[in-house]
Design brief:
The complex is a heterodimer of chains A (257) and B (70). Chain A has helices at residues 26-36, 79-91, 113-125, 138-146, 168-177, 191-199, 209-212, 217-237; strands at 5-7, 10-12, 16-19, 40-47, 68-72, 97-100, 129-134, 151-154, 183-185, 204-207. Chain A is α/β, with parallel strands linked by helices and 257 residues long. Chain A has one domain (5-237): TIM Barrel (Alpha-Beta Barrel). The model of chain A has no long low-confidence stretch (mean pLDDT 96). The model of chain B has no long low-confidence stretch (mean pLDDT 94). With 70 residues, chain B is mainly beta. Chain B starts with a strand and ends with a strand. Chain B has one helix and five strands. Chain B has one domain: Ubiquitin-like (UB roll), CATH 3.10.20. Classes of the chains: A alpha/beta (257), B mainly beta (70). Chains A and B meet through strand 4, strand 5 and helix 2 of A and strand 5 of B.
Chain lengths: 257, 70
Amino acid sequence: MDTPFVVGGRTFRSRLMIGTGKYGDPETMVRAIEATGAEVVTVAVRRVDLDRTAEGSILRHLDPARFFLLANTAGCYSADDAVRYARLAREAGFNDFVKLEVIGDQETLLPDVAGLLEAARTLVAEGFKVLAYTNEDLITALRLEEAGCAAVMPLASPIGSGLGLLNPVSVRTIKRRLSVPVIVDAGVGTASDACVTMEQGVDGILMNTAVASARDPVLMGRAMRLAVESGRAAYLAGRMPKREVAVPSSPTEGMLD
Amino acid sequence: MVDTVEIVVNGAPRRVTAGATLLELLGVWSLDPRGVVVEHNRRIVRRPALGDVRVNPGDAIELVQFVGGG
């Protein structure tokens, strides 16, 4: 039996969180998200298009009664910007959770950990439940926990890269040393990546592009649901030790002369 | 002739009725206040107060909503 998945005092039914960006059309997005079984869906805060050429609010397609909307601060390059976006997101009135991103570099989209810590402290003091997107550095993860973050979200590999889990040892170390939930965010490319990530013992995983940019996002959504459940079960089951020599599975006794 | 003033909305200049409230402006742009968050000169204006805040020339207003993102 698994333990409940609790973040910021709230229990969620799925360990898989899913992004809502980059889908070809909103109908496919909704069907793909349903196939993942995710309860938490991330959203971004952007200007309304007064000339109505753009898609408009995602809430036209996602029922906030069915999904937990986790606003992000994607695209923010300073602590001040991220805090501003988080406050706007909370004012939308759904919850006080925020997926905090403070990006330090356009090419890699790697986090600016100094800005991240600064923004995290400010938002925690304002009562936010902060889920902090960070790299796989243990010390930063520990500082984020000390700052009061509700969850720490190390990357598997850069956002949108699909490279999978590049540094399992560091992610395992973070999981071992932190008390708050560790949710791997970004970099998963396909189902095996999600499974291997969950096998490290992390509490959850957040992905977007791997589903949205699959040829069949709905089918990939289902694959990801199975992979996350599978990886979690394998972690809980406890894998056999690795050996570099064969050990027979059938009895060596009772062979014919 | 109705008096108008120039303000900046989502980064672009716009002429609006002088003395209009934020709530009236949302109506002009057919925006449901429940789906939009309003920032007025870098200060968030909560929904119940939208009808109390009037715009002045040069004000900066941001209107944001939730869109798809990861």
